[in-house]
Every structure is written in structure tokens, then in C-alpha cells.
Specification:
Strands 1, 2, 3, 4, 6, 7 and 9 form a 7-stranded antiparallel β-sheet that branches. The protein is built from 3 helices and 9 strands. The protein is of the alpha+beta class and 129 residues long. Strand 1 and strand 2 form a beta hairpin.
């Protein structure tokens, strides 16, 4: 099972989609008791019941689209993701839609989070032979 959205797609290119902790952007959560705190990838995975990665859209691969977005997942007390907001766009609607679609499938242990903000970096790297 891929951890935290890491996806490798091999064809002509290797495409990597993963949440990354940047200096200004890190994964943060609003816990069910109302406090806010930064989370490591390991902490987030500990509370995740399902965290499927976003596939790199074919059109984005062909166009070699890259970017970094920030997405906020809203949770029901059951742990189901009920809404995904684009806090900062990756710069490409196709990448934002792929992230939103994947994040809507995320599930967490019940009663842990009210919301989680996750940065995602999209990049296309040539495979070296």
C-alpha cells in the first residue's frame, strides 16, 4: 500500500505525486478537541484507515505539468472525508482535480480530526537508462 499519496507511474516518464513538508507548508490538523498541530507523515498515516494516492493524469503527464498545491480535507466524526478545499492551487486544474478526487477517498479513525491540510507536490522526471 503506497504511503501518503506516493504514486510511481512508469512509462516514458516516472511521475511522482506525494505530500511534501515544505518550509512554509506542512501537514497540519485540527483535532476533534479543537487544537491545531503540525503532523509528520508517520503521524498522519497512523490515523489513516485509507489513503489512496492520486494518479498522475495522462494529460498532465503529456504536458509535463508540475506544481505544488495545498488541500484541506474536512472530516465527519466517522472519519470520512466530506469535502476537499483547494487552499492553494497547484496552478493546473487537472492536478487539483486529481488531488481532490484521491483525497475524497481518504478515511481516518473516527473522532480524531475535524480537518487536515496537506501540501502536494506534482513533478515529472525523466527515467534514466
Amino acid at each position: 500500500m503506497p504511503t501518503l499519496g506516493r504514486i510511481l507511474v512508469a512509462a516514458w516518464f516516472t511521475c511522482v505525486v506525494l505530500p511534501v513538508a515544505l518550509a512554509a507548508d506542512q501537514t497540519t490538523a485540527v483535532w476533534s478537541d479543537g487544537h491545531t498541530a503540525a503532523l509528520s507523515d508517520e503521524e498522519l498515516v497512523r490515523y489513516a484507515l485509507a489513503s489512496p494516492g492520486a494518479g498522475y493524469p495522462e494529460a498532465a503527464q503529456k504536458a509535463k505539468l508540475t506544481g505544488t498545491g495545498l488541500y484541506e480535507l474536512q472530516m465527519h466524526l466517522t472519519g470520512k472525508t466530506t469535502q476537499v478545499k483547494v487552499i492553494r492551487s497547484s496552478g493546473h486544474a487537472v492536478l487539483d482535480q486529481a488531488a481532490k478526487g484521491a483525497f475524497m477517498k481518504w478515511r481516518f479513525k473516527p473522532g480524531v480530526f475535524l480537518s487536515v491540510r496537506i501540501p502536494v507536490s506534482w513533478s515529472v522526471n525523466k527515467v534514466r537508462k
